[in-house]
Design a protein that fits this description.
Two copies of one chain form a homodimer. Chain A is an all-alpha fold. Chain A folds into two domains: about 80 residues, Multidrug-efflux Transporter Regulator, Chain: A, Domain 2; about 60 residues, no CATH class. Chain A is built from seven helices and two strands, in the order H-H-E-E-H-H-H-H-H. The first copy, chain A, has a two-stranded antiparallel ribbon. In chain A, a hairpin with a 5-residue loop joins strand 1 and strand 2. Chain A is elongated and about 65 Å long. The N and C termini of chain A lie far apart (about 50 Å). Chains A and B meet through helix 1, helix 3, helix 5, helix 6 and helix 7 of A and helix 1, helix 3, helix 5, helix 6 and helix 7 of B. The first copy, chain A, binds a DNA duplex (30 and 30 nucleotides) through helix 2. Chains A, B: GO terms for molecular function: 2 iron, 2 sulfur cluster binding; DNA binding; DNA-binding transcription factor activity; metal ion binding.
Chain lengths: ~160, ~160
DNA sequence: TCTTGACCTCGACTATAGCTGAGGTTCTAG
DNA sequence: CTAGAACCTCAGCTATAGTCGAGGTCAAGA
């Protein structure tokens, strides 16, 4: 009755992974997970899919968008079941990404805290307002896009 | 010519704050910023708006959604220009929020790192897979929503 | 065999955070 | 006073990450 070697239906995967069936459809549509179809067009998944879904969920917790998760998963060998080493490589690169995000948020928090004493967000003084503001102050002209890109480049 | 006491047009605000005019329209529509209208129905803003926009941008860098920024800004006194203390209160609460996010990401990063050695995401062993998985393993039933909520509650 | 739960596709809808363009009006400098 | 830059509204589009329901099909137990 409970044959652990059996393929999994969408419902099985949903129950075991904790995501909804519609989400699994969505992930498959986006190319994040794969499965075969029965003669009656129903999805059947190998056990690997549970690990894939787990990885997707964890990566999302880390704030990684699905398209990045997809390209990371695409680095895994597609002919064989990924090994411990394969997963470790993935984990390592995401760990670095996460560290970068932590550093960025920590810097922001420190600036927030220093700002409590600086008369928050005063022009030209507060680090939270600069360097963007220096540019904006420098004169008129079509610099909105430039500033925006600059801000994104600096902050992301 | 350059009268610093003059009210600002949308274009002025856009150039000085580095956000586009359409974004300012959007913020106004969402109730994040306010201004008066000329007899010809054009927007005019006081100087305060620059600080508001700056605060919005900084809060967004911290990952705070606009609706939360809106309710935080709504705490400010609406009859007078906010004081240093008013802004400091805001800054302090966001700093706490930021710290919570940092803690959460740091925990996740640590788990990622320990996972490099644990045969990443192995069932029942890896902290990244649990506690969700323990629930999923425990049997069938309509627990998808429960699991999802549980996961969100625990992780967010 | 039959019934019922699980499955299928497809389109529409949610929320967030905007951007773009059409068609028309206002403001301001020369 | 007029030309052109800047402004207005409104509708529709982008992307991310899904959810929901309609209408129809499949599969497995009694």
């Amino acid at each position: 009755m409970l044959d652990v070697t059996r393929e999994l239906t969408v419902g099985d995967v949903a129950r075991r992974s904790g995501v909804s069936v519609s989400t699994l459809h969505f992930y498959e549509e986006k190319g994040l997970i794969y499965g075969r179809r029965t003669s009656g067009n129903q999805r059947r998944y190998g056990r690997d899919v549970l690990r894939f879904v787990a990885v997707i969920k964890v990566a999302q917790r880390a704030g990684i968008p699905l398209k990045d998760i997809k390209s990371a998963l695409a680095q895994l060998p597609n002919s064989r079941t990924p090994t411990k080493e394969d997963w470790a490589r993935l984990t390592r690169s995401w760990s670095d990404m996460l560290q970068a995000r932590i550093d960025s948020l920590t810097q922001l928090r420190d600036q927030f805290e220093s700002c409590i004493g600086c008369g928050c967000l005063s022009l030209a003084v507060c680090p939270l307002r600069n360097p963007d503001d220096a540019l904006a102050q420098s004169g008129p002209g079509p610099r909105v896009l430039i500033d925006t890109n600059e801000a994104e480049r600096v902050l992301s």
